[in-house]
Amino acid sequence: MATRTKTDAQAAKAVDTARGALLEQIAESEVGEHLGHIAEGERVVTHLFECTLAGYRGWRWSVTVARASRAKQITVDEVVLIPGDEAIVAPEWVPYKERIQPGDLSPGDLLPVEEDDPRLVPTYSFGDDPVDPPLSDNDRAQVRQVADDLGLGRVRTLSIEGRDLAAERWYGGDGGPDTPLAQSAPATCTTCGFLVRLSGPLSELFGVCANGNANDDGRVVSYDHGCGAHSEVQLAKRHEPQPLPGHVFDTVTHEEFEAL
Ligand code: SF4
Predict the structure, then answer these.
(1) Which of 135, 171, 208, 242 is paired with 253 by a 20 to 30 Å CA distance?
(2) Which residues line ligand 1 (CB under 6 A)?
(3) Does 191 share its domain with 135?
(4) pLDDT over threshold 70, residue 150
(5) Nearest residue CA, atom 6 of ligand 1?
(6) How far apart are CA 121 and CA 127, in angstroms?
(7) Does the global pTM surpass 0.70?
(8) What residue's CA is closest to ligand 1, atom 8?
(9) Which of 48, 58, 108, 42 is nearest to 78 (CA)?
(10) Same domain, residue pair 31 and 72
(11) Whether residue 130 has pLDDT greater than 50
(12) Number of domains into which the chain is organized
């Protein structure tokens, strides 16, 4: 159970000492009422004073005083400005990497990936496709050596976790089967001539739309996605353009027709 710190009576009474220390550094016009004190530890007390600086509503001047054991003299530890409950403070710091959202990158921006990012594994340990049965250490070393010698291949490739995350994101996104566009499509992408097939494990579920007239042109789509620009879509008779009626002679404003 937490024990309450006993307030040192002399340190608690040292309001004038605390105010004096504050006024050595801060203009008197910026210091308001004494708001109380907090027992910080044995013979250590913090006195709080209202801050009357414009724009600092709710902030307090905090002056910590202390008394040595068996001493009568009070000494000043520190003077700082701290926010109270009603103070306007900056939002909690969020690292740049966590703040950035898809689509935020501008030309020239860099977004480094952590060395131990679980979405990636060294290519030589996994390859672009799962190897069955898995490579032995010796085989891996040979593959890496060959890749190094030839200058081929990427250093890292998607891990199973990275692949699953991408598949979930794509399937649940605009290229998946649950969008209004896909729900009202006459057929799915799997039968569409504009679907470009991928390679690797993600190709079991996804391809890329290559129809310049479709909303998803250039984007990953799931096989059960679809849209009205499907290559085999046919207009029903009632949707086809109606034939125009023949020309009508204007016999009201054109006199020459009277001569006919
Ligand atoms: S045109 Fe439509 S149906 Fe065809 S691949 Fe693209 S999104 Fe799928």
Answers:
(1) 242
(2) 189, 192, 194-195, 209, 211, 214, 216, 221, 225-227, 229-230
(3) no
(4) no
(5) 209
(6) 9
(7) no
(8) 189
(9) 48
(10) yes
(11) no
(12) 3
